[in-house]
Design goal:
The structure holds two protein chains of two kinds.
Chain A lengths: L1 H5 L6 H13 L1 H9 L4 H6 L11 H8 L4 H31 L5 H11 L4 H14 L6 H24 L5 H8 L4 H12 L1 H17 L2 H11 L3 H10 L6 H21 L1 H13 L1
Helix pairs in contact in A: 5-15, 6-9, 6-12, 7-9, 9-12, 9-13, 10-11, 12-16, 13-14
Chain B lengths: L1 H18 L4 H35 L17 H6 L3 H33 L5 H9 L6 H12 L5 H8 L16 H25 L4 H9 L4 H29 L3 H5 L12 H11 L3 H29 L4
The chains are: A mainly alpha, B mainly alpha.
């Protein structure tokens, strides 16, 4: 450690080593990108070689053969709908539970906290039955309801943690000015929660776009026109895997999250770890 | 939306002032609670709590599908569970994976975080490389891994053959022994970035005075780790190991998209077994019983783990 300051301009062994390991770590992604421009024959014959010519037909097939455009739009709309529901209901509840004297406040706080521990497998089968009883089985509405209620405990948890950093004086002065609790929330608290809202948008946008399992279980493959469900459907009805289309699909579906990640890497990392550090 | 709430509020205010002048404020507060908390409580109670209770009710029945009506069978499902060989195989496999996952995400990612923390140049780029797989969908990672591990045309085996190491080329997903490590590799690749980042965030909170004091005392990197970094990282070790435990015990989307329990029944995790019983076969009642027993076990293990780890934490 003593030598540390003297050797400030030391040869960057560690940097080179970790860069090499890091590149090896993400090499499957590069291989996918490379192979998405090859024909199936080429992928089988030279999986690691450079493509002879850029086979863009893999990409065009995604939109003509697999018809991924509509599922992509659906997934995007689903992300927006879930996020809008979450960033309105969760902070309202968190505000009410944390800042206002409610008779059931303590009970509800514990109840929402307990929700963080419930695994999906427990509610999976009964939830399907419940949607059946409500006559909304295999519908987008059912999936939306599930995503929002599934997201609530964690969102309320994140918002509650953030709420404690907001000074109470603001609400008090608003109350003196004759502002009711609901308008106090929307006019004063909600704008201050913006950093937290951005976190929630990133976290859930990513999660819902990427989710395959829950959409598959709640909606099935024929009704659930969401991207990853449709990619899965395309895969499962073929005996021989058409790796060229799979790689093109993987690249296309990962592009939005990759762009989002590259644009806001710092925010991203902060947001994704927010729940864990608290 | 906003305007709707104001309107509702105004309505409540008007009616309450007209009828009960004295309790007006009280009613007003109650209405506000209803507007603020109502949607969240309704969704949470209706679509998380209610199905969980319904699931428990199903676990006491022989319910076997969508159309038949369930018959109450008491604890029969739980009795069957104690003699279900497949359930115990699934537990054994799940625990094996969980141990690998917990050890790797607790200590492997800690080591990586400590190394990443030492970087002077290219910090963001190198961290970004390790974090990147975390933003990918499980389905994407699973497909990439399946391709890499494919026996005939996979990248790993092709590379081995090209280097004349034919003997090392394996059927990574078809071999009953190797497939366990294949699943572990997939989970590890996906989650490493997340767990490392949580450690990195904690490392940044260690006051620099501690490092300076260590430098003055002539402590090397190893000592700095054992005496300063490791003790200071203990709270995150608790969080990470519990999160890793949950990841391990609930492991199942990765199985659905890769091996589907195979070869044979080798990679049936408890989560996949529940999915298999409840969604693929029609044994909903029994599936509910399995899910509750697993959940109870998870809560107990996590509680013991937290209690053990918390005792070792130091405070500043």
């Amino acid at each position: 450690m003593m030598a540390h300051s003297r050797k400030r301009r030391r040869f960057p062994y560690l940097e080179i080593l970790l860069l090499a390991v890091g590149l090896l770590f993400v090499s499957p992604c590069f291989i996918a990108l490379l192979n998405s421009f090859k024909t199936l024959r080429e992928i089988v014959l030279s999986p690691l070689g450079v493509p002879e010519r850029l086979a863009f037909e893999n990409y065009t097939y995604l939109f003509t053969g697999v018809r991924l455009a509509k599922p992509m739009a659906n997934s995007f709309l689903m992300c927006i709908a879930v996020i809008v529901c979450l960033i309105t209901t969760a902070p309202m509840a968190a505000y009410s539970l944390m800042r206002r004297r409610m008779a059931t406040g303590k009970f509800l706080r514990i109840a929402f906290l307990a929700g963080l521990t419930i695994p999906f497998q427990i509610i999976m089968v009964p939830l399907l039955q419940e949607f059946r009883m409500l006559h909304i089985q295999f519908s987008y509405l059912a999936l939306l309801i599930h995503y929002v209620s599934w997201g609530l405990p964690l969102c309320i948890f994140i918002y509650s943690g953030f709420m404690s950093t907001i000074p109470k004086e603001l609400e008090e002065s608003a109350a003196i000015d004759g502002c009711g609790p609901v308008s106090t929330f929307w006019r004063i608290i909600f704008p201050l929660l913006m950093p937290c809202t951005v976190t929630v948008i990133i976290f859930w946008g990513l999660w819902i776009w990427n989710d395959f399992m829950q959409a598959f279980i709640i909606m099935g493959t024929s009704k659930g026109q969401l991207v990853f469900v449709q990619l899965w459907r395309f895969l499962s009805d073929k005996y021989v895997k058409n790796w060229n289309y799979i790689f093109a699909g993987v690249v296309v579906l990962s592009t939005p999250v990759t762009i989002l990640y590259l644009l806001m890497q710092r925010r991203f990392i902060k947001g994704l770890t927010a729940g864990a550090i608290k | 939306m906003k305007r709707g709430i104001y309107a509702k509020e105004a309505l409540t205010r008007m009616s309450s002032s007209a009828r009960h002048g004295a309790t007006r404020k009280h009613l007003h507060q109650a209405a506000a609670s209803l507007i603020l908390c109502g949607p969240a409580v309704l969704l949470y109670a209706g679509f998380i709590v209610f199905p969980a209770i319904l699931g428990f009710a199903y676990s006491l029945t022989d319910w076997s599908g969508w159309t038949t009506s369930p018959n109450y069978t008491g604890l029969d499902n739980f009795r069957e569970l104690t003699q279900d060989g497949r359930f115990f195989d699934a537990i054994r496999f799940t625990l094996f994976e969980t141990v690998l996952i917990v050890v790797f995400f607790s200590f492997g990612s800690m080591l990586l975080a400590v190394l990443l923390d030492k970087l002077r140049i290219l910090k963001g780029l190198i961290r970004g490389l390790f974090f990147y797989p975390y933003v990918l969908s499980i389905l994407v990672s699973a497909l990439l891994f399946q391709y890499m591990a494919n026996y005939r045309e996979g990248a790993v085996n092709t590379l081995l053959r090209a280097m004349h190491l034919e003997a090392l080329a394996q059927d990574w997903m078809g071999d009953t022994r190797l497939v366990a490590y294949f699943i572990f590799g997939l989970v590890a690749w996906n989650g490493l970035g997340f767990f490392t980042t949580v450690y990195l965030a904690n490392l940044q909170t260690i006051p620099t005075e501690l490092y300076e004091a260590a430098r003055i005392d002539g402590a090397g990197a190893g000592r700095v780790f054992t005496r300063i970094q490791f003790p200071m990282l203990l709270p995150t070790l608790t969080t990470n190991s519990v999160l890793a435990l949950i990841t391990g015990i609930n492991l199942f989307p990765q199985i659905v998209v890769t091996t589907q329990g195979g070869p044979g029944w080798r990679t049936f995790t408890v989560g996949y077994y529940i999915f298999h019983l409840g969604v693929l076969s029609n044994r909903q009642g029994y599936a509910a019983a399995v899910s509750f027993v697993t959940f109870a076990a998870l809560v107990i293990i996590a509680a013991v783990q937290v209690a053990l780890l918390r005792r070792r934490e130091v405070s500043l």
